[in-house]
Amino acid sequence: MTRLILIGGGHAHVHVLAALAAKPMADTDVTLLSPYSRQIYSGMLPGWIEGRYAIEDCCLALDLLAQRAGVRLAQSACDELDLEARQVLCANGDSIPFDHVSIDSGPVAHPDDLPGALEHALPVRPIEGFVAAWPGLLERARQSELKLAIVGDGAAAVELAFAMQARFAAEGLDHARLALIGGNHRPLACFPLALRRKAMQLLAAKGIAHQAGRRAVAVTPDHVQLDDGSQLAADAVLVATGAAAPSWPAHSGLATDSDGFIRVNRRLQSLSHPFVFAAGDVAAYSDARPKSGVFAVRAGPPLAANLRALCCGQALHEWLPQKRALYLISTGNGNALASWGGFSASGAWAWRWKDRIDRRFMAQFGA
Ligand SMILES: Cc1cc2nc3c(=O)[nH]c(=O)nc-3n(C[C@H](O)[C@H](O)[C@H](O)COP(=O)(O)OP(=O)(O)OC[C@H]3O[C@@H](n4cnc5c(N)ncnc54)[C@H](O)[C@@H]3O)c2cc1C
After folding, report:
1. Range list for CATH 3.50.50.60 in the chain
2. CA-to-CA distance for 356 and 150, rounded, in angstroms?
3. 126 C-alpha to center of ligand 1: Å?
4. pLDDT tens track for 88-121
5. What is the rounded distance in angstroms from the CA atom of residue 166 to the CA atom of residue 52?
6. Which ligand 1 atom is the nearest neighbour of the CA of 281?
7. Residue 304, CB half-sphere, CA atoms under 13 Å: how many?
8. Using alpha carbons only, what angle is made at residue 350 by residues 348 and 356, rounded to the nearest 5 degrees?
9. 131: how many CB neighbours lie within 10 A of its CB?
10. Are the C-beta atoms of 338 and 346 separated by less than 8 Å?
11. How far is the CA of 10 from the centre of ligand 1 (A)?
12. What is the pLDDT of residues 53-86, one digit of tens each?
């Protein structure tokens, strides 16, 4: 028996599970290691905040997907890999031996990079933690004036701000105040200028303050300290800065890039340990691509094919991620911004398009 461990139930691994369910692999014992028995699909999170989706609509049942694939679910997190002994050391103290391992465990939030954030801020990841905390935040907004600051001004932070504003407005919570804190003069730094301008206009129109060009340097119980010496009053702070790498891949001795993401070749194989594969945000592809769900989803089919080839002793194939991707950023109230290469546009059609894509993605996996 070849022993394969899938670490994390991310976008690429759910495809691997579906491929195994469709066509099981002989003589291979597969384990999925995941801290949760479900995977919350981040693309639908803003819609859940707004109240457009129930949380069940946004969840993939990893336990069911694993069961259909004949895969054992070990409910814990990877703490470290012992690459000599070929064992995964789990947070619950278990160690699981393997012949091959595939990692799709996503990015992490690093609130410890921002003094005070660990104690006084809510990170958007793990998404389970955020989902558990959001109803409490909403309740606080219902009870009293709430000043909510979001640290970050990338796509996730902007989508969350628009979704929360839409929810507050829908409930008549006009006293709730939202601010985005980003180091950039305009949000959405990686997107075309026209889209960034449109986002600025929309933020202003909806009363979401953007602290342009000012970085958060500390969080206290009642304010965020900014790098120009000023303070922003905040009763609650959400950290939604960009994707950061977990520390355990580098600590385990895997080759990583300077940010700690696992370096892989075009076969999605670790550059230092060919029996280790990685995909999604945790991977640093040889053809660099933005950290996004789009590329994590795209990596699913080539990863599934190469894990099968590996376990069956066949040749691996190279994968070249597409250069461009379609991004649809919801702006609340059934609207979205769309971006493809240098092109950008916005409207209700973009949100309907996003909704269709997201629902189709979920339906593929039986959700
Ligand atoms: C609010 C929000 C909205 C977003 N919207 C979009 C969007 O519309 N489009 C888009 O392209 N991107 C979007 N993103 C970015 C997107 O979420 C990520 O790029 C994407 O989730 C990366 O996928 P992944 O498969 O690498 O990891 P993930 O989706 O994060 O999955 C990783 C899985 O691994 C598990 N895991 C974590 N650590 C461990 C461990 N140590 N051991 C075992 N398992 C572990 C996690 O529980 C999780 O199930 C959004 C992000 C946020 C926060």
Report:
1. 2-107+243-311, 111-242
2. 28
3. 9
4. 999 999 999 999 999 999 999 876 789 999 999 9
5. 11
6. 26
7. 23
8. 105
9. 17
10. yes
11. 6
12. 999 999 999 999 999 999 999 999 999 999 999 9
Helices (H), 7-126: 11-22, 45-50, 62-69, 117-120
Q: Which fold has domain 111-242?
A: FAD/NAD(P)-binding domain (3.50.50)
The number of C-alpha atoms within 13 Å of 228 and in the hemisphere containing its C-beta is 10
Backbone phi and psi for residue 165, each to the nearest 5 degrees, phi listed first: -60, -45
> Over the Cα atoms of the chain, what is R_g?
21
- Amino acid 184: pLDDT: 79
pTM as predicted: 0.96
Please report where in the chains the tokens 């973009």 appear, as a residue.
Answer: 350
- What's the gap in Å between 191 CA and the centre of ligand 1? 20
**C-alpha distances in Å from residue 52, one per residue of 214, 249, 336, 348:** 33, 37, 14, 14
Q: In degrees, to the nearest 5, what angle opens at C-alpha 204 toward C-alphas 199 and 196?
A: 20
Written out in words, the top-level CATH class of the domain with range 2-107+243-311 is: alpha beta
Token pair for 194: 């026209």
- The 3-state DSSP class for residue 310 equals helix
For the Cβ of 42 lying below 6 angstroms from any atom of ligand 1, the answer is yes
Q: Which two tokens stand for residue 180?
A: 């985005």
Mean pLDDT for the stretch of residues 212-217: 91
pLDDT at 144: 93
The DSSP-derived string for 323-359 is: S--EEEEEEETTEEEEEETTEEEEEHHHHHHHHHHHH
DSSP letter at 286 equals S
State how far the Cα of 268 lies from the Cα of 102, in Å rounded to an integer.
9
